[in-house]
Amino acid sequence: MASKVSKEMVVDVPVERFWEVVADYEAYPGFVPGVKGCRVVHDDKGVKDVEYQVDLGVKTIKYVLRHVEQAPTKMTWSLVKGDMMKVSNGAWELSHHAGKTLARYTVEVQVQKPPLVPQAIMDRVSDELTKVQLPRTLDAFKAQAEKGR
Description:
single chain, 149 residues, alpha+beta, Alpha-D-Glucose-1,6-Bisphosphate, Chain A, domain 4
């Protein structure tokens, strides 16, 4: 079962500034919790395949997401391939909000079940990745965008 959540936040910068942070994948290891590596492996007119290396605490995993960019207001992504990931879809939707940015982040994650591990445990891991990591991730993007304003 995939775990899906959405959250909105207001960021005290214009949409264009927040977009710069969201679309700067290779800077993610410097401010996004758990991201140890991030690089664009394919770039074709607003469609970018990005390889992530993420520390889950007990294991570091690699996966590739295909990002479709509609600058500066929308980015969607979906899983291309990866360790342990069965589903990883999501979106950033950005809109102008009185000189600030209203950012809506949606993510759906499901981790593959290794042999001999109950599905209920894997569902809890997926849930943890979305519901616990989500607030930390959003806080990190907000802080990065608002830094030096």
